Inverse folding.
């Protein structure tokens, strides 16, 4: 044992002196550091995104109910789990002020409300956010309602039997929901005054909401507990149900984040694996000598294992702080340059993960090679020609797989990443043959090149093992980079278009046909603005072909909503939409009875082209034939309709119009004028959601830029390591050729041709792989795909350029050292 | 230039010092040397006496700290790296103790390499011819890994002579070989040297090898301790 310790110390010192540990140390510090920081960064982003979407809900989790909620019991259970909770009560009621009377949507809340986000109020200082709520005896009202009532702050308003003081102007609540539901203008009152109004006794429709917020897992526990106890009148609400348009980009972004983390993970692993391999291979000679001198296999194992352990401990330690600093720097950068506020990383937890990562990675990758070292024959000392023992392949893959699994299980593992991993592995394997073939081809054509150029080609063609290794590694790196770039491009493309800054942020509903031209006129004269108008007819689906629809046929899913309630149908004389089946129609089809059905509805109800649907609107029934199936983006903030008909079919039915338009916040007073002129109209404000979405998307795009930076860093790390692993062989070749009289130029050309071919081939392989992977990811993430043929030319050139660049850096160094030195070193 | 009165290699006041962590180390000290064309010369000395260093200076692989070397009329001090490489390419062949073949290349390609670098016509035929001459006609497509030490050294010899250099520098060419193989290799080198009328500078610590050379020089800790004609 004592001897072992002595050996360990001396060996470590020797390795330190000889810079054997330098590349490996660098790989660990940078690789693990990057991993740690991407982890920091991902968790920060996740927190920020969660907070943002919760703010739109006013809570993390909500139960909505049309019957009273056992809120006392539930809030005790929530408190036991360390969660905050509150109850709100919403109902429609007439509000009186002086002579004026208006229908209002009243919400009674307590001090805890809202649990997430803030109320926006207006006073002499202008609009601002507040954490307070109306105290007992007071109410806050929407500006629209105050205008309609011709009331003023400080005056008394009546809600049912209660007389309350108007004390504030409520501009916006965080949980406006998708404002389509909130038709009437809002009043916020204190829940303590509720009994005094006596309105709840009148049997009017009331919505009770139980709001919960707090730590994610605790919320999930509470949700799991309460869900089974809910009655049919009670439904759970989270972001997916209220804000699909918000959840989708967040979900996409988080998936992308995981994907990027995986890419960085693969690259970091690659760097560490390569560095470890080189390190272990360099130990062959010293091992032989020590074995010759009587060191046991066990002793050698202990010596190497402990040097590696020491190194990985040290490097992981540095890496943690490097990673932490990097993450902090990025978050700070995001805050100062992009006005994106991400919560600071959690130091303790992530450092532990990073620490374990470093050690497991090094040992996992080194282990097979170290095992191999024990087979080094002491005879090598006498006979240098004796080959180094070959490594059993299953050890390599076993070790790599083990390290990979252990580490990746420390991070979250969505299905996406595993399928990606699997795909990459499969693709690389299948490309093995192709690369081999390419190398043979290169060797064949290379024979015809003039000498200095041919040198590099011959090198590639002959040293197949090393060439293949380099080609694969470099292809893998480039695949990662290209893949990242492609998906990033899709994201930017998908998001930038989604919510243009002039996308409609207001909707007006209930416009009567005879008011249409008046409303149009109003906007045209006041703002030179032409809203989009959509006619709407309410009707219920009663028959599919000759079959009466029944809820019993469709017990689950979204179907009950489609058949138990009136649908909003729209009609159009010219259908312009993305059709998945069938033909669009134009004016010539005006009087034909045609229907256009949304794709998901068609799927859920099993509808096909030519099917006849019968609807009932009041006492009237009408039947139309499905002419086409239509794709609708439910995640956009656009009015969407399940069914659109030809005009002739429904033109005689009672209908209203929905108008959508963009109005900048400085012109909002216009809306009050509109309401005054057309009192029956309701204005829906989605501006808050739109701007939240736009913020979110900007944040997301910034996050992607940060990730890009990190992926690039990781790639560079691998490239440097792979060059270092080749350094000795190159140095030798270079020295020998110089000795034989090759000029620097000739040498350079020899290496250049090698680098160029390797870079080009890698780029070619990588872009094919990346494009394939990107197509799969586009499918999974529902991103629109775009294809650009040019990348198949630019990507290989890019690979060539990068390879040349990194190669040249090392070549420069190589060409400078005199040949005699290098030859001596090799000996 | 008439080779008979001007020496092929001439070194005057040659010295080499290197900077080590413990101070300046003098490896060679004031060496003077003249070697005429077609002559064979042995540089002897114990290990670490500076033989390889002297060789690398004479061949222009490294530059001296003091003194001058002229090779085939070129004053190496006045040339830059590439110009010295050109002199080596045109006039010098090497044989090393460790053979130093490119592991990725076949025997034929290893011999072909300097011929191609020099741009000689019929390079391939020449290379095949030389491999025949060293008795490896059947091993041309083998890589160094597939060849024994003696065979590798034969390839190296073919590579050195194939470019028809004026001088061959051989640094302990038998140092890695067994006695029997060593004699075969030495015979090959001297035989070829005589046939081609090449100058030979042979570094060795072996007296019996040195005796085969026309001239001998002894190095001791960087100092020349006499020359024998
Ligand atoms: N670049 C160098 N730096 C430090 N010491 C060197 C260098 N080159 C050679 N030496 C030292 O100079 C001495 C002579 O080396 P060398 O010429 O290789 O001797 P020989 O070939 O006679 O065995 C040795 O002690 C060697 O360690
Ligand atoms: Mg020597």
């Amino acid at each position: 044992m004592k001897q072992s310790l002595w050996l360990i110390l001396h060996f470590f010192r020797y390795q330190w002196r000889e810079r054997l540990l330098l590349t490996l140390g660098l790989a660990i510090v940078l690789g693990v550091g990057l991993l740690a920081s991407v982890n920091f960064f991902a968790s920060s982003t996740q927190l920020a995104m969660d907070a943002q979407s919760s703010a739109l809900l006013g809570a993390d989790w909500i139960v909505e109910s049309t019957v009273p909620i056992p809120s006392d019991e539930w809030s005790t259970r929530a408190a036991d789990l360390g969660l905050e909770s509150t109850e709100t009560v919403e109902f429609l009621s007439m509000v009186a002020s002086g002579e004026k009377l208006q229908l209002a949507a009243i919400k009674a809340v307590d001090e805890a409300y809202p649990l997430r986000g803030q109320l926006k109020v207006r006073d002499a200082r202008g609009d601002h956010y507040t954490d307070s709520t109306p105290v007992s005896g007071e109410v806050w009202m929407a500006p629209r309602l105050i205008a309609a009532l011709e009331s003023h702050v400080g005056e008394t308003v009546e809600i049912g039997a209660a007389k309350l003081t108007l004390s504030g102007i409520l501009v916006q609540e965080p949980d406006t929901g998708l404002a389509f539901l909130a038709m009437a203008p809002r009043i916020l009152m204190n829940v303590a005054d509720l009994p005094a109004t006596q309105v709840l006794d009148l049997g009017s429709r009331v919505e009770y909401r139980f709001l919960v917020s707090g730590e994610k897992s605790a919320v999930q526990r509470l949700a799991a507990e309460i869900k089974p106890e809910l009655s049919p009148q009670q439904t759970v609400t989270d972001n997916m149900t209220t804000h699909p348009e918000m959840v989708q980009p967040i979900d996409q972004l988080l998936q992308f984040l995981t994907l990027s983390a995986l890419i960085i993970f693969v690259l970091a692993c690659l760097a560490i694996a390569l560095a470890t391999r080189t390190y272990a291979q360099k130990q062959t000679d010293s091992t032989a000598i020590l074995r010759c001198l009587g060191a046991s296999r066990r002793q050698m194992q202990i010596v190497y294992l402990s040097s590696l352990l020491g190194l990985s401990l040290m490097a992981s330690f540095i890496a943690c702080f490097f990673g932490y600093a990097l993450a902090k720097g990025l978050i700070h950068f995001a805050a100062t340059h992009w006005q994106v506020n991400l919560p600071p990383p959690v130091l303790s937890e992530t450092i532990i993960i990073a620490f374990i990562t470093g050690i497991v990675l090094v040992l996992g990758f080194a282990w097979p090679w170290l095992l191999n070292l024990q087979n080094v024959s002491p005879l090598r000392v006498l006979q240098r020609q004796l080959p180094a023992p070959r490594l059993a392949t299953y050890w390599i893959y076993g070790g790599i797989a083990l390290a990979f699994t252990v580490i990746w299980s420390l991070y979250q593992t969505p299905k996406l990443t595993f399928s990606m991993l699997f795909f990459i592995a499969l693709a690389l394997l299948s490309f093995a043959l192709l690369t081999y073939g390419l190398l043979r081809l290169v060797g064949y054509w290379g024979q015809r090149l003039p000498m200095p150029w041919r040198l590099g080609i011959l090198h590639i063609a002959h040293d197949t093992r090393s060439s293949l290794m380099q080609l694969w590694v470099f292809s893998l790196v480039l695949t990662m980079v290209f893949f990242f770039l492609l998906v990033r491009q899709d994201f930017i493309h998908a998001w930038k278009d989604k919510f243009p800054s002039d996308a409609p942020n207001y909707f007006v509903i209930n416009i009567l046909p005879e008011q249409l031209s008046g409303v149009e006129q109003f906007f045209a004269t006041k703002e030179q603005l032409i809203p989009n108008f959509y006619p709407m007819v309410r009707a219920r689906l009663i028959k599919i072909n000759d079959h009466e629809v029944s809820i019993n046929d469709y017990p689950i899913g979204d179907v009950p909503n489609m058949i138990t309630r009136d649908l909003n149908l729209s009609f159009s004389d010219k259908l312009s939409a993305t059709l998945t089946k069938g033909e669009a129609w134009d004016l010539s089809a005006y009087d034909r009875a045609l229907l256009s059905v949304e794709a998901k509805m068609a799927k859920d109800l099993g509808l096909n082209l030519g099917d006849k649907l019968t609807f009932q609107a009041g006492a009237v029934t009408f039947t139309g034939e499905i002419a086409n199936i239509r794709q609708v983006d439910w995640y956009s903030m656009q009015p969407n309709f399940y069914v659109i008909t030809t005009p002739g079919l429904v033109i005689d039915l009672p209908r209203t119009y929905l108008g959508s338009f963009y109005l900048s916040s400085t012109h909002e007073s216009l809306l009050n004028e509109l309401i005054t002129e057309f009192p029956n109209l309701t204005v829906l404000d989605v501006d808050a959601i739109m701007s939240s979405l736009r913020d979110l998307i900007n944040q997301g795009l910034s996050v992607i830029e940060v990730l890009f930076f990190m992926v690039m860093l990781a790639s560079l790390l691998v490239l440097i390591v792979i060059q270092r692993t080749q350094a000795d062989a190159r140095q030798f070749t270079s020295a020998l050729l110089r000795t034989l009289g090759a000029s620097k130029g000739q040498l350079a050309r020899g290496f250049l041709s090698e680098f160029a071919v390797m870079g080009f081939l890698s780029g070619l392989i990588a872009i094919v792989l990346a494009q394939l992977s990107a197509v799969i990811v586009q499918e999974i993430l529902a991103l629109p795909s775009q294809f650009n043929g040019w990348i198949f030319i630019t990507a290989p050139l890019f690979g060539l350029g990068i390879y040349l660049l990194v190669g040249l850096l090392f070549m420069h160094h190589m060409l400078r050292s005199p040949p005699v030195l290098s030859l001596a070193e090799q000996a | 230039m008439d080779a008979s009165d001007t020496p092929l290699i001439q070194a005057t006041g040659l010295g080499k010092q290197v900077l080590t962590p413990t101070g300046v180390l003098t490896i060679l000290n004031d060496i003077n040397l003249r070697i005429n064309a077609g002559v064979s010369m042995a540089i002897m000395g114990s290990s670490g006496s500076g033989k390889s260093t002297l060789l690398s200076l004479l061949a222009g692989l490294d530059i001296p700290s003091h003194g001058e070397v002229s090779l085939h009329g070129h004053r190496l001090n006045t040339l830059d790296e590439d110009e010295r490489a050109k002199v080596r390419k045109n006039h010098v062949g090497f044989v090393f103790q460790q053979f130093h073949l490119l592991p990725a290349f076949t025997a034929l390609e290893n011999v072909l390499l300097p011929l191609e670098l020099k741009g000689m016509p019929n390079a391939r035929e020449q290379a095949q011819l030389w491999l025949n001459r060293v008795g490896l006609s059947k091993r041309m497509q083998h890589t160094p890994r597939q060849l024994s030490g003696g065979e590798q050294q034969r390839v190296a010899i073919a590579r050195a002579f194939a470019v028809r250099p004026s001088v061959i520098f051989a640094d302990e060419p038998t140092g890695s070989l067994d006695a029997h193989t060593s004699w075969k290799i030495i015979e090959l080198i001297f035989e070829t040297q005589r046939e081609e009328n090449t100058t030979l500078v042979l570094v060795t610590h072996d007296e019996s090898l040195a005796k085969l050379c026309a001239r001998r020089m002894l190095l001791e800790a960087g100092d020349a301790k006499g020359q024998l004609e």
